[in-house]
């Protein structure tokens, strides 16, 4: 089930703190992370590689939740960091993250982004397309620098997931396609580049994947390509990056595997294929985002209005919605939730939880079983730690919620709630 306890008062507890107290103290909507769970998730990946004796980097995909406090925890847990923008890179630098462990992604990296990455001497740039290679080359020349680079390839692997979060299939905006020779062309540019140190290849086959064999298939696809490059050019990769995408439990329909299994399967296949190709086992990098932070947070909302349509449905509205969690509206993502002061109360009926945005599609949860509920009750939605706050927005001019980190009975506000002054701070009058 969800990794949270019920305390002596029968209330939901997170990081050792009563969810009702948190709602009272910080207001709602409120994101609360149990930092202990983040650490546990991170360690499952890191320690499995260690146990196997594999050279590896576990790069937290900060797009899932980027914030100074989160980057600090990633640093403590000896993670590397995957950033996809100047904003995420800036956040990492603000948090004092070691730049040599930062990897930059993006299918349209701007000159400014690349300049910042090169100036800060980050650990690696993952090139996504020909324009990337050209720009990086130009900047390195101008700055008289060198940098490590991986090539992102698109292996043409379909993963069973929502089409908006499919990324490894052939018809994708990301990476160099393996099938049509693009990757070979990219290789020719990178391999003998005077300033780019070409270290190996990257692929990300999609998100919320539950089967280890998808990753095994990805490893095989990469090695098929590597075999060509070894034969033709004697290329031996130092790094193989398998991306992220490890699935988590949102609802009882999701049955994720322990993260150790993914690491073990990937490692075993990389070892096997390396032996076959007669090369040293390359360093393995992965980029988990959701699987590090997803199940570590809950969102607390206050229940407000009710609308009963007898025989059809009862709508129960909360004080947030698609402005703090876009995933149900964007991907029809499903969530589970409880009433925070009686999570184990007998369920009496089924209601549908509506957000407060002016949009019919702003439905957080359809058909949620609940006990008797009233306005003022606190609803706790599980598994909102990934792509929740990071995709929050100001639709209807709602301010983004606050974020609290809790661990071992202590809590700390790590992102302040946006005020209305914040919401209008970039507005300028037309008339004065
Ligand atoms: N690496 C690369 C290159 C990626 O494109 C992604 C996700 C990740 C790593 C991390 O994937 P994760 O381990 O978090 O599944 N907003 C969507 C997810 C978009 C993911 C895009 N790329 C959602 O809310 O489900």
Automatic annotation (TrEMBL):
Q: Keywords on this record?
A: Amino-acid biosynthesis, Decarboxylase, Lyase, Lysine biosynthesis, Pyridoxal phosphate
Q: What Gene Ontology molecular-function terms does this entry list? A: diaminopimelate decarboxylase activity
Sequence ranges assigned to domain Orn/DAP/Arg decarboxylase 2 N-terminal in this UniProt record? 38-293
Question: What residues bind pyridoxal 5'-phosphate, as annotated?
Answer: 245, 287-290, 387
Q: Name one Pfam family in it.
A: Orn_Arg_deC_N
Q: Which part of the chain is the Orn/DAP/Arg decarboxylase 2 C-terminal domain? A: 31-385
So which cofactors does this thing need? pyridoxal 5'-phosphate
InterPro entries for the chain: Ala_racemase/Decarboxylase_C, DAP_deCOOHase_LysA, De-COase2_C, De-COase2_N, Orn/DAP/Arg_de-COase, PLP-binding_barrel
Asked whether the keyword Amino-acid biosynthesis is assigned, the reply is yes
* PANTHER family per the UniProt record, alphabetical: DIAMINOPIMELATE DECARBOXYLASE, GROUP IV DECARBOXYLASE
Q: Write out the similarity annotation.
A: Belongs to the Orn/Lys/Arg decarboxylase class-II family. LysA subfamily.
What this protein is called in its record is Diaminopimelate decarboxylase
User: Which species expresses this protein natively?
Assistant: Aciduricibacillus chroicocephali
């Amino acid at each position: 089930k969800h990794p949270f306890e019920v305390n002596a008062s029968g209330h939901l507890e997170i990081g050792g703190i009563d969810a009702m107290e948190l709602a009272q103290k910080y207001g709602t909507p409120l994101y609360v992370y149990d930092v202990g769970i983040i650490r546990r998730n991170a360690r499952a990946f890191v320690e499995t590689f260690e146990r196997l004796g594999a050279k590896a980097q576990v790069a937290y995909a900060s797009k899932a939740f980027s914030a100074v406090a989160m980057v600090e925890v990633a640093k403590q847990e000896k993670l590397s960091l995957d950033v996809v923008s100047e904003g995420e890179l800036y956040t990492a630098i603000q948090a004092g993250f070691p730049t040599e462990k930062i990897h930059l992604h993006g299918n349209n990296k701007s000159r400014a982004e690349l300049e910042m990455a090169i100036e800060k001497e980050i650990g690696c740039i993952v090139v996504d397309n020909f324009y990337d290679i050209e720009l990086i080359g130009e900047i390195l020349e101008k700055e008289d620098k060198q940098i490590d680079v991986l090539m992102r390839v698109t292996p043409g692997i379909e993963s069973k997931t929502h089409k908006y979060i499919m990324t490894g299939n052939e018809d994708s905006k990301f990476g160099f396609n393996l099938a049509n020779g693009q990757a070979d062309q990219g290789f020719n540019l990178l391999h003998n580049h005077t300033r780019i140190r070409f270290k190996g290849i990257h692929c990300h086959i999609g998100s919320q994947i539950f089967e280890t064999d998808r990753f095994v298939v990805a490893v095989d696809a990469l090695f098929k390509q590597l075999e060509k490059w070894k034969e033709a050019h004697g290329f031996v990769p130092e790094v193989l990056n398998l991306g992220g995408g490890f699935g988590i439990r949102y609802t009882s329909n999701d049955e994720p595997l322990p993260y150790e299994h993914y690491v073990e399967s990937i490692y075993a296949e990389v070892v096997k294929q390396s032996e076959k190709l007669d090369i040293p086992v390359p360093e393995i990098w992965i980029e988990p985002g959701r699987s590090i932070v997803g199940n570590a947070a809950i969102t607390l909302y206050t229940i407000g209005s009710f609308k009963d349509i007898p025989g059809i449905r009862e709508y129960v509205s909360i004080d947030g919605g698609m402005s703090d969690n876009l995933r149900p509206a964007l991907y029809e993502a499903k969530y589970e939730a409880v009433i925070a002061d009686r999570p184990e109360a007998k369920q009496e009926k089924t209601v549908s939880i509506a957000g407060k945005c002016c949009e019919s599609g702003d439905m957080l949860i359809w058909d949620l079983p609940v006990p008797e509920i009233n306005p003022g009750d606190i609803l706790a939605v599980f598994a909102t730690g990934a792509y929740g706050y990071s995709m929050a927005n100001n639709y209807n001019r709602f301010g983004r919620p606050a974020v609290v980190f809790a661990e071992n009975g202590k809590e700390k506000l790590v992102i302040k709630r946006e005020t209305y002054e914040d919401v209008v701070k970039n507005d300028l009058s037309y008339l004065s």
